[in-house]
Amino acid sequence: MAETDTKPPTPKPWQLLTLTITDLAFGGEGVARHEGFVVFVPFVAPGETVEAEVTEVKKQFARARLLKVLEPSAQRVPPPCRYFGECGGCQYQHLAYPAQLELKRKQIADLFERIGGFDPRVVAPVAPCPQPYHYRNRIMVRSQWNKPRQTLDIGFIRHDCGLVVDVEECVIAEPVLNEQLRQVRAHPPPKGGIKVVLRAMPEDWEVPKDSFFQNNFHLLPGLVEAVGAALRDSGARFLIDVYCGVGFFGISLAGQVEKFIGVEYDQMAVRAAKQNARRHGRTNGDFVIGNADELLPGLLKCYAPSQTAVILDPPRTGCPKKSLELLRQARPWQVVYVSCHPATLARDLNVLCADGVFELRQVAPLDMFPQTQHVECVADVRSVDGSKG
Predict the structure, then answer these.
(1) Residue 115's pLDDT is what?
(2) Which residues make Cβ contacts (< 8 Å) with residue 183, sequence separation at least 6?
(3) Which residues pair with 334 in a beta bridge?
(4) Of 175, 180, 217, which Cα lies nearest the Cα of 198?
(5) Cβ neighbours around 334 below 10 Å, total
(6) CB-side exposure of 216: number of CA atoms within 13 Å?
């Protein structure tokens, strides 16, 4: 009799399941199996036994809503936020902070091995944030008309749908932002659908209203040190800061190189970067406005490749493949890639390091986003071709 493949039984919507959580996937969902079928459950910890209700069934997996923790993990702690579990902003408040750091390191290492084919040992332990709460210096709140209650909800998107959770405070936001939130609630937008950005500006840096700046002042010195340590170790004399924004990295690290140049598409940000360079007394660099893909070939010819480091700090979507190919052709001595999205980082580094053109030396993660699924990474990549000098 022919042997037949048997597929695990698919759970049904609204079915109640008792599950043992075996892992946390990148993004924060717990991984469990129901008779072999993968089920994702939020707000859980590895090793826990939980009761959950199936909410969504796909071909290869299902999602379920946590109903009750039957056997809690020793790492479970009471979340300080009354909106946790409803609001979509945080995923890990129920976990002790050291456990969050260990899980993030494992998630990054798994992504780098699976997506990039890298040895997971290249990923260093995650640097902790000295202030795991009240650290965010920028949040965006939304307004939405709540028809059943006939009220205007002001807050954040729920974790399980597109509705807005009405919030009075955010425990991961800087105190000044919660004061701003109280002002918004006292003087609400005229209608739903309006987004309001609340922001605390950094000292000694000029940042236009819509320009990017790192969201965590408390671990910012650690981020600069991580990039600076990689730069010092390489001994590069020249620096090209791509996606430079208001010039933060180039200006902060100008003392480690002979010359630097920053590239940015945002004209307001470039004007601010020049002001910031003057404010910080940096005279060995310049900033240019334009598209990195168009300007990078010329910039890479300005300095000897064997003496040049390139900093990449792109949006979450990562670098265009064209830019990565330009770097592979020019072969600067070092690429320091700063990213808040480990999956796109692993993807892009896989392109850079293909065929032995570059070598990934280390990935240094920093917990710029405690209590959430997000994490910042600094990757140190070196040219394999040619000799430095």
Answers:
(1) 94
(2) none
(3) 309, 382
(4) 180
(5) 23
(6) 27
Q: What is the C-alpha separation between 181 and 158, in angstroms, rounded?
A: 18
Per-domain boundaries in the chain: 9-75, 100-129+216-383, 138-199
The CATH code belonging to domain 138-199 is 2.40.50.1070
- The two structure tokens encoding residue 225: 């040190």
* Distance, C-alpha 362 to centroid of its chain: 17
Structure tokens given for 9:
């039984």
Q: What is the pLDDT of residues 273-284, one digit of tens each?
A: 999 999 999 999
Task: Report CA-CA distances (Å) from 195 to 91, 140, 153, 226.
Answer: 22, 7, 12, 34
The distance in angstroms from the start CA to the end CA of the chain is 70
| CATH tag, 9-75 | 2.40.50.140
State the angle between helix axes of 342-352 and 321-330 in degrees (0 to 180), rounded to the nearest 10: 40
Over its C-alpha atoms, the chain yields an Rg (Å, rounded) of 23
pLDDT at 387 (0 to 100) = 45
Q: What is the pLDDT of residues 48-80, one digit of tens each?
A: 999 999 999 999 999 999 999 999 999 999 999
Say if 9-75 and 138-199 have the same CATH topology.
yes
Instruction: Report yes or no: 19 and 52 within 8 Å, Cβ to Cβ.
Output: yes
Tell me what pLDDT residue 5 has: 60
**In this structure, what token pair is assigned to residue 270?**
């470039």
Q: Which of 215, 190, 182 is nearest to 201 (CA)?
A: 215
The burial class, CB within 10 Å (0-12 / 13-18 / 19+), for 389 is exposed
Cross-strand bridge partners of residue 364: 378
Counting beta carbons within 10 angstroms of the beta carbon of residue 46, is it exposed (0 to 12), middle (13 to 18) or buried (19 or more)? middle
**What's the confidence (pLDDT) of residue 1?**
45
List the chain residues with pLDDT less than 50. 1-3, 386-387, 389
The predicted structure's pLDDT at residue 292: 84
CATH topology for 100-129+216-383 is Rossmann fold (3.40.50)
* Beta-strand pair 151-157/238-242: unpaired
8 A C-beta contact, residue 344 and residue 318: yes
| Run of H or E including 293 | helix 292-300
